[in-house]
Amino acid sequence: MPIPFPSRERIDFLTDFGSFLPAEASADSSFDFGRAAMDGKAVWICAINPAKQPLDELASFVSMTRFLEKILSEPAPLILLMDLPASHDSAQKSHIPTSPDHLLANRYGVGAWYYFLSRLSGRVPMACAVFNRLGATLTFPVSLCDVAVMTTPSGMSIGRMDIVSKMTRAPVSYDKLGSAKMHAVQSGSIDAVFDSEEEVLDYIKSYIRYMPASSGLPLPALNTHPPCGPSVSALIPSSATQPLDMDHLIEALADDGSILELRQDFAREAITSLVLFDGHPTAIIANRSMEKGGLFFPQSSEKVVRFIALCDAFGIPLVFLSDSAGFMVGSGVEQFGSIKNGARLMQAIATATTARLCVIVRRAYTAGLYAMSGAGMRPDRFIALPTAIMTIYGESVAMQLLSGRNEIEKKSAEHMLQNAHAPQNFLDHGMLDAIVHADQLREEIITFISEHQRGERASAKPIPPS
What is the DSSP letter of 430? Predict the structure, then answer.
């Protein structure tokens, strides 16, 4: 059943009954902002009210940005509910404000909105819901939040349809310019798209439940149930050439119904999900080998970098589930910055201060091993399943490369392929911490989470001894 009215009804749906306390300055503003409780947790809310015409647009912005400034000294999760202000004529037409110069350059004008959201990023959890087609000023706050979700008809673009068509002198398709689907699948600017407002708001509520009140504080412990699906071992194919359904594998590992996937339709070869293990928030980074072979592309590296930064800011332990054949090769990915984005990924892993567990579920080929926080990247724990494969080249590639090579190279390749399928050799030489049976993997992860950080972010993680 659709929510009948915007703004306050959206706030009431999100928060505990009667808990919203509007800030006094919001009375004459096109923003409804104030403090509330969500499942007993204090949160800040800032919502654009599409039915409210501000007495003064500049004054409205000033009061809202001063509200954001206050959050810096009283940190708690912030939720933005974005809609089209009543002062805008339509979603397609560019708006000319009544005080354009002052909105542009005032110390508490539009720039201050971006400034304080940027300052709050990584300090408090921030989530955004979008209910209309936004343009220009309204777009950047969406991507300054940790997560952003849209209703199907909504969207965003820096230039609205009228100004884009005039500047480009060409027909404009909103589906390509700024639709919710485009941002979910192609730009990667949002995390999910839903048909109903209730689904959008439920996603926001789930995200906030998993997060601490602010950076440096302990993560919540939630009441959950263990998974109720098939065993993990039943989901792992006997051959590395058969597809592995990583989504089902994560469902078999994590607490029942606890998976919240971020950027779920963007760069689908990489999975970035928040889950619960025994009620404790945990970050899963995994390769979806059923999509593009689980290879790393520039977009998937970018996606994982952003996710690591988010989890590191709030001390959420990282669990890497590797089924990676490495990085995609070819002129296309090189032109789109595969090396640059891959290097940033390794930098993000190496500098993360939250705990990291690397699990070789099935494959870790060439630099894919490092992109999944494996050997050499100093994970806090590095384990493999008994059937795991670690190698520079997979067997089919290695055999093609060996054509015409000398005997020394052929013997090296044979040795590599023999060891690839024998994780016990890596364990015997101290390159692995343990080999864990698939059906014991959930308990192994729970033990790891319980022994490491639960929100207390280390100021500097020491380099483990060689």
Answer: T
